[in-house]
Design a protein that fits this description.
Elements lengths: L11 E2 L6 E2 L17 H7 L7 H12 L8 H11 L6 H4 L4 H13 L3 H10 L4 H30 L3
Antiparallel strand pairs: 1-2
This protein binds zinc ion (ZN).
The site of zinc ion has 8 residues, from loops.
Length: about 160
């Protein structure tokens, strides 16, 4: 009789102690560590969702030998997208500063409302709060400018 290799059956490993877990987000039975916030992305990277059985076993061994996993931000981004989660960092949720709002409003008025649309498009993934703000500032200005433009066209047609 051969003992089944437990490490090859693990669904995830604890990236704190290298213990075996049933899933990336469940508490670790060995050290009681529960991944929260950013740690959830690291935990996901150390699960069967990202690694094969052999790689998990290898990673578990490395962690037990004292390796502190420090995945790159690109890997954590991959995990975040795969988990379908919203960004959790404070920077990502930070609203636009007063200065940015002023610049955006000025850009919308003096140049084109496309400024705000472009900003919203660029930020909607990483900074949803700021992107929504950009859109809120831009939409009324875009509407107002359309009305002005329309009024100008009508006025020129009805001219003397
Ligand atoms: Zn653990």
């Amino acid at each position: 009789m051969t003992q089944p290799n437990k490490e090859l059956l693990a669904k995830a490993i604890c990236h704190r102690c290298g213990g075996l877990k049933a899933g990336p987000l469940v508490p670790c039975k060995a050290c009681a560590f529960v991944p929260s916030a950013q740690e959830r992305q690291v935990a996901w990277l150390f699960s069967e969702h990202h690694l094969g059985a052999e790689e998990l076993a290898y990673a578990a061994r490395r962690v037990r030998e004292g390796d502190r996993p420090d995945p790159s931000s690109a890997l954590k981004e991959l995990a975040r997208e795969a988990m379908g989660a919203q960004p959790v960092s404070d920077a990502a949720l930070a609203p636009l500063g007063a200065r940015s709002m002023l610049l955006l409003t000025a850009g919308n008025l003096l140049l084109t409302p496309l400024t705000g649309v472009a900003l919203w498009f660029g930020m909607r993934q990483d900074r949803p709060t700021a992107a929504r703000q950009a859109l809120l500032v831009t939409a009324p200005i875009a509407l107002g400018m359309s009305v002005l433009w329309f009024a100008a066209v009508v006025a020129s047609r009805m001219g003397p």
